[in-house]
Structures are given as C-alpha cells and as structure tokens.
Amino acid sequence: MQELFDRYEKILSDDSDSIILPDSKKFQTYAVTNFRGGIGKTTLSFNLAYAMCQKYMTLFLDMCPQQNFTTLFLNNKEPYEGATIHDALMEKMMGEAWDIDSERLALRVQDTNAQFQDGKTCYYIPGSSKLFLYPSQFYSRLNEYYGMTTQGGNKKAVAVVLNMLKDIIEQQVELTKTEKVLIDTSPFFAGGTHLAWAASEALIIPVRVDEQSIYSLELTLQMLKDDGSDFNLWRQRAGIEEKPVVQAVLMTHCGWNRQADHQIDKASRMYIERAMEIAEKYADVFSSDNVVNHFALLSDFHSSGRISGSKAIPIDKLSEGSQFRIEGKKVEVNRSVRRYKKELQYAFKLIDN
C-alpha cells in the first residue's frame, strides 16, 4: 500500500519518470471491463482512447448496448444508422442472410470528432442498442453448436462462435492497418462482453471506491481465474487455450484530502486497500507477479469528467478556466484538471508499458 501511495506522490509531483515499471509483454487488444455500471467507465475509455490515438493507429469498438462510446466518437451528432458491430456479429451467425459491407464497418474517428485530429489515424466500429437482445441469440447458437461438438467430438464448432468478434477484429485491423484495439464493454458479462473477453489479450478494470465496485472486482477476477466459471467452461469446451490477463486496475472517484496535498482521503484509502487485497488473492491472473504495478489511482473528475463525457472532449485537451454549458448550466474547468491529466497519463503508462 505504501509503495502505491508513494508512486501517487511522485505522479502529482511531476516525477512519474522515476517510477520503474517492469518490462511486460506488449498487448494488441484490450477490453475495458467491469461488472458495475454508473462509474464513468465509458468516459475513462474515451480518455484512454485519446491517449492511445496519440501514439498508435487504433481501432475502437463499442460493445455496450447503451452506445455511449459511439456517441463520444460521433461527437453527439444524430443517431448512427449505418452498419454496427451487432450487424457484423449477426453476419457471422447468419451468413448471407445478414449481409453487410465490411469495408464500411469501421469509421475514421477524425471524420466525426475533431478533437482527435492531432493524433494518429484511428477508427471505431459503432455499437448498437440491439446488443441488449444479443445474449439470447448468442447463447442459443452457442448451445446449438455445443450439441454438434458433443455428438461429433469436435470442439471447433464452439470455437467458431466464441471467436466471432476476434475474427471481425482481425479483419478490420487488416483493412484499417491499425496497431492496437480498445473495446468498451457493458457491465453485464453475457453476450457482447463474453465475446470481448474471448477476443482480448488484456483487461483494463475500472473500480470505483465503493462497496459494490469492490464486490464486482472480486467477481471479475474470480470469473477470469476459476475453471468452473461460465467464461472458462465455454473456453474449455471450445478447446481455446488463451485467455486474457489483467493489465490495469484503475481506481476511480478517489477522494482528495484538501488539507494535505497529494493525499487520498481515509475512506478511499480503505477501499483501495481492499482492492489490493483482492488483487493479491488473484495475483496469478495479472500480467506480472507484482499487483502494485497494475494499480493507478484516479480522482473524482468532477466538472472536467462531466465536460469530457458531455462534450466529447478529452480531459487532456481541457484548459483551466474554460467554461461550458451542460443541460443549461454553466460548468467551469477548475485547477484540479492539472491533477487529472497527470493521473490519466500514468494510467496509460500502465497499459502501454
């Protein structure tokens, strides 16, 4: 714990370069995932997307039926009516009965959100509200194919279903020439999130400093580790050896002690300590053997986070004192935005170390 807080002090003191992280495997495909909604996950995904865009040609996917990730890339324009990730998945399941133009599936981020003009050329595949209904279709097909494998002794049929999203990603990466992939998922495991895990090499887990989020962190790590979990049972039935590892746990909404610079308040420290204990319990699902190397502490972004999520502007591009109107109310970027930027930079460092 003290090592983690010492690092936080260095980050806010502009000394993050002195934090030595071990060299780790470079991953191509990441999924931002948790089993708790309402914690600002998509706003965080959007800000990580901007950081990735500064360094890599990246493909972004929206696997959440609420489509907030898509809305941020569309920059709050009219609802998208073109081909979505749901259409691509249905084409995989239905074949020619559900035909789409795969070359028009991924859209250029810079064409719809000018905030990304200063980065590498990036693309996104829009989400769809139809993903709310997708779990029933997905598991019906999965069980149908599993019946075929138990009769014929061939695991490949189940693998075809579980790898649908992975196949779509590989096709789109080839078409767009992108180097990295970032997937925003829903807080429900069934359907789209299950496929996102199957397609990803590494997971990024946001955890709010509250009781429900701590519980959901343990559920997430348990799902990843336990052989009897739904994720691992289907993976084994498909004969798929690979599974994702945890690359980052991003503790969000940490309270800041106003009386002491650079210190997290007592309530937040308690939840962070519990999250660390859970991570130690499941240490073998992380990409390295020291879980401290995978934790980043992020403040409650207050007005800056609200502006970022409402106006589709990355926090890194917000200036102190700037004012915006959100739902008829004036919102100002306060001086805390300096701290937020440093915290986000370190979070990205964990992912891209």
Automatic annotation (TrEMBL):
InterPro entries documented for this protein: AAA_dom, DNA_Partitioning_ATPase, P-loop_NTPase
Pfam assignment, any one: AAA_31
CDD domains registered for this protein in UniProt: ParAB_family (cd02042)
Residues spanning the membrane: none
Top-level taxonomic group: Bacteria
Positions of the AAA domain: 29-224
Alphabetized Gene3D superfamilies for the sequence: P-loop containing nucleotide triphosphate hydrolases
Protein's recorded name: ParA family protein
